[in-house]
Request: fold
Amino acid sequence: MSVMIQPVSIPDGVDIERAPNGKDRVSEEELRFFDKKTVFYDLFTDPANEGYLVGLGPPLLNLASRLDGMKLVIDGKKVPYKWRDHPELKLSVLKAKMPSRHSGHGARTVELQFSDFSVSVSVGQREEQGRKVIAAISKDNEVPWISEWVDHYRENFDIDDVFVYDNGSRNRGELKEALKGRAHVVDWDFPYGPPGKTHT
Reply:
């Protein structure tokens, strides 16, 4: 099984980059690995209140003023939003009330309009509310080991579901095939920055 996320990134060709925190000492070599283009890792409807849109991303730091000046358009209607950087969590959070619709269900069209570029994504409803799930991130781990880990938690901890966030593994196809019907594999292809550093 696979879960689709709805990331928002600065498009190639747009000369804007997210900078690291000025308090962190980052060498030129380390900057090669820094995630300069991600604005939000995922946009989704709030599982506790489907009337709200949530965006989770890295700290925006030097891009904060651009987010302040952004227009958020949902299903063709401009909506107000709030966002906040949480440096202690290395995270930023956006929240907005979805405009009501007269009929129908399904995905909503969400457009983020910045002064230099726009990004449009389709945001659907997810079914994780009220369920006990476990999640882990993985990169190039052995498939049999991950498979045993999934079975261990499912059998011993009364887990409803398992999510494995795969960070660009070479064996992702094999992993998805091995976990089919037992766990969700989420394509999580975001650079995190220099290994072992707290500013990732």
About this structure: Helices lie at 28-31, 64-68, 143-156, 172-179.
